[in-house]
Fold this protein.
Amino acid sequence: MAMRQTPLTCSGHTRPVVDLAFSGITPYGYFLISACKDGKPMLRQGDTGDWIGTFLGHKGAVWGATLNKDATKAATAAADFTAKVWDAVSGDELMTLAHKHIVKTVDFTQDSNYLLTGGQDKLLRIYDLNKPEAEPKEISGHTSGIKKALWCSEDKQILSADDKTVRLWDHATMTEVKSLNFNMSVSSMEYIPEGEILVITYGRSIAFHSAISLDPIKSFEAPATINSASLHPEKEFLVAGGEDFKLYKYDYNSGEELESYKGHFGPIHCVRFSPDGELYASGSEDGTLRLWQTVVGKTYGLWKCVLPEEDSGELAKPKISFPETAEEELEEIAAENSDSIYSSTPEVKA
């Protein structure tokens, strides 16, 4: 029976959402952080999109955000020339790390003791979070602003991307191991520890490389310019989004397009699978995050599959249930915000 994808819309931001990241699975579930040009990164419950809190303190657009594995710390990268580390439980700011230019990317080591940053000054910096007063280690070599920097190979190596180059660095020697050059701008990069896979998007291409050798594995072409792609934890599917407002889902093995959905009202800037692979989140120019089911119709989070009457001819569709929240109250909120795609109050709606 055909099922209709019903995404959850997470409002609250007032400018484009440019980055998002999930935590690992914790005893309290998993969590989602979003970076936005409004300068106010937000933390949400990962499986429902429920707003938990907003990190206040940046004085410019936030370009990058991440959570550590157990969701106890958050880090953000911003246009105010700082990276900040936060207590993700209390929301308190733990430290501000001053830079000389716009910071675009942040990433924790697995033990949360070190933070990697990169930005417009073309330098990679490694901060010892147990010694915040100490000067960071710096790695130079990029020839343009750094868009993304990630720890890999159990924190023994670093992957970083600037405009048209992806570089692999050795952490111990702080030297470049290998680089990849592209004929157009690299729009995103994702590292998959299980299998050491690197996902790179540029133009309409979604490319998969070995994170150890940077050797190519395979690549797919999409119908539109792609800004971000994410590989399912089981490596069954990949999802991608970009300039045509649509999300595409592909079979990783064959490259066949399985589904495509349009839900955003602007280009999609970022997309990531949840750690359990049950959903994927997208962030857009329209100021919203949306949560999409990997397997449409499965009862999970706020989705509950309701089958129609057999003779009605209707498509089966997931029903969105809101635990401990009055449906009338949600309808009132939706009515109040119906004249705008933005909402001043963080909410989740179908």
